[in-house]
């Protein structure tokens, strides 16, 4: 399909973001079903919250890393996260049209993935503890601390991933770094703040669970963190390559030069 000017719309890239995010959220519902389901043998074998958090971190990080490395991730750049998309747009590595399309695809994918989990497990995905994989802060933790933790974790995630992605010879592949960083940050902030740092990760689960009291925190805090990261990086004086998910040929990981003057 082409635009009126003859340039095709990148539907495959947009669909890839939708599909990858849907898979991510379906896996999250399945994971919470195993970790917190009342009829789950794993849930009974792991009564301690720390053990569940460790499994959550490993599975979540590994899933994100695999999706980034998958055909879907290679097609679109593997954002799966509106905060990542915002950062790329602010750094002029993504057009406004594609940024909007990516975010809409991610949010739609979030809802679709949770809906698939609901169809498969029914009410067992809707119990209070499973909650369609809704992320929740610990009791007594104020929203301000959750907001700060989510924003800081998002900024750290972007800084770590972009640092590796922009090296001429990365020591580790980017998907491996993504997996490790996501897992590490969930371990770091998950116990107290929930550990989402991805608006799409919380959007579908919170809507299906009807748990929207703090949804605004989990939607906006990662965007603030992404904005802070982009602001700091845009002030770097030397030209640094930034992997671009969409170039003129619609292939991912195409380096784009960004300097302070261009920013």
Defining traits:
mainly alpha, disordered C terminus, globular, 263 residues, 63% helix, disordered N terminus
Please give a quick description of this structure.
The chain has 263 residues and is mainly α.
Q: How would you characterize this protein structure?
A:
The protein is mainly alpha-helical and 263 residues long. Helices cover 63% and strands 4% of the residues. It contains 10 helices and 2 strands, in the order H-H-H-H-H-H-H-H-H-H-E-E. The chain has helices at residues 11-36, 41-45, 49-69, 71-76, 82-90, 96-121, 143-165, 174-193, 199-209, 215-234; strands at residues 240-244, 254-258. Strands 1-2 form a two-stranded antiparallel ribbon. It is globular, with a radius of gyration of 18 Å.
Low-pLDDT runs of 5+ residues are 1-5, 244-263
CA-atom Rg in angstroms? 18 Å
Helical run tally: 10
> What integer is the average pLDDT?
86
Q: Could you estimate the helical fraction of the residues in percent?
A: 55-70%
* Strand ordering within the main sheet: 1-2
Q: Largest sheet, described in full?
A: 2 strands, antiparallel
Number of strands: 2
Q: What percent strand? A: under 5%
Order of helices and strands: HHHHHHHHHHEE
Shape, principal axes of CA atoms: globular
Q: How far apart are the termini?
A: 32 Å
Given helix and strand content, the structural type is: mainly alpha
């Amino acid at each position: 399909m082409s635009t009126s000017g003859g340039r095709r719309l990148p539907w495959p890239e947009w669909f890839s973001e939708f599909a990858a995010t849907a898979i991510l959220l379906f896996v999250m519902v399945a994971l919470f079903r195993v970790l917190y389901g009342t009829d789950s043998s794993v849930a009974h074998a792991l009564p301690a919250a720390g053990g569940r958090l460790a499994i959550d971190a490993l599975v979540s990080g590994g899933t994100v890393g695999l999706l980034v490395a998958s055909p879907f991730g290679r097609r679109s750049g593997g954002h799966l996260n509106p905060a990542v998309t915002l950062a790329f747009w602010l750094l002029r590595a993504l057009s406004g049209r594609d940024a909007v399309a990516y975010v809409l695809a991610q949010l739609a994918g979030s809802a679709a993935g949770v809906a698939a989990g609901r169809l498969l497990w029914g009410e067992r995905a809707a119990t209070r503890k499973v909650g369609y994989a809704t992320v929740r802060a610990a009791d007594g933790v104020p929203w301000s601390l959750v907001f700060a933790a989510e924003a800081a974790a998002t900024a750290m995630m972007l800084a770590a991933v972009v640092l590796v992605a922009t090296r001429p010879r990365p020591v580790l592949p980017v998907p491996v770094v993504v997996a490790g960083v996501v897992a590490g940050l969930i371990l770091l902030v998950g116990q107290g703040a929930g550990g989402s740092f991805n608006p799409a990760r919380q959007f579908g689960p919170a809507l299906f669970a009807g748990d929207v009291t703090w949804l605004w925190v989990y939607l906006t805090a990662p965007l603030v963190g992404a904005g802070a990261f982009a602001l700091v990086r845009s002030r770097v004086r030397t030209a640094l390559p930034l992997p671009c998910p969409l170039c003129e040929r619609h292939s991912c990981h195409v380096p784009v030069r960004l300097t302070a003057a261009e920013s």
